[in-house]
Amino acid sequence: MTNDKNNQNSNIDTKDFLIGTLIGGIVGATTALLLAPKTGKELRTDLNDQALQLKDKSTEVATMAKEKSSNLAQSVSTQTSQAANKVKEFSNNVKTDYTNWRNKDKMDELEEEYNEGKADAIEDAMQTPNKELDEMETNYEEKHTPEYK
After folding, report:
1. Could you give the CA distance from residue 120 to residue 125 in angstroms, rounded to a whole number?
2. Angle at 67 between CA 62 and CA 72, to 5 degrees
3. CB-side exposure of 85: number of CA atoms within 13 Å?
4. How would DSSP label each residue in 64-87?
5. Does 129 score more than 80 pLDDT?
6. Residue 11: which residues within 8 A CB-CB, separation 6 or more?
7. Taking the CA of residue 67 as centre, how many other CA atoms within 13 Å lie in the half-sphere pointing to its CB?
8. pLDDT grade, residue 12 (50/70/90)?
9. Is the CB of residue 40 less than 8 Å from the CB of residue 62?
10. Which end of the chain has a smaller Cβ tally under 10 Å, C or N?
11. Predicted pLDDT at 127
12. Distance of CA 14 to the CA centre of its chain
């Protein structure tokens, strides 16, 4: 966030500098025209010189602006790719955590089903001998008890 403010201040400073240079050049040229008691030839020569100076300064400012914008673009590109990498890493971590959570829930469900199945198997195993014993007892009673005959 601090870097963004610095970039904005840098852009504003460059913009203000360009505007100030342009206005200063115009005001200076106008002042020179109005206050200088020179001949027309001398005045044109001075205007030409000032125009060349203004052109040189504007070229210099344009070069500086290009350098700053290039640096800013490179900085933004670097920060964007870093942010994208962090987002990818975060999303992968979330996916992994979610998968682990789902697998843990499945394991808990499987363990619960296993325990229920084991309990049912034990209960069935306990009931099978009881049923057989009951049947054997019933058969014995039928064969040996006078009521059934």
Report:
1. 8
2. 120
3. 6
4. HHHHHHHHHHHHHHHHHHHHHHHH
5. no
6. 68, 72
7. 7
8. low
9. no
10. N
11. 64
12. 30
**Torsion angle in degrees (nearest 10) through CA of 38, 43, 46, 50:** 120
Rounded distance between C-alpha atoms, residue 140 and residue 67, angstroms: 108
Specify whether the CB–CB gap between 10 and 68 falls below 8 A: yes
Structure tokens at 108: 């808990």
From the list 67, 69, 65, 46, the residue with the least C-alpha distance to 57 is: 65
Q: Which residue has the tokens 């955590």?
A: 97
Please state the separation of Cα 129 from the chain's center in Å.
66
Token pair in block for residue 22: 């342009």
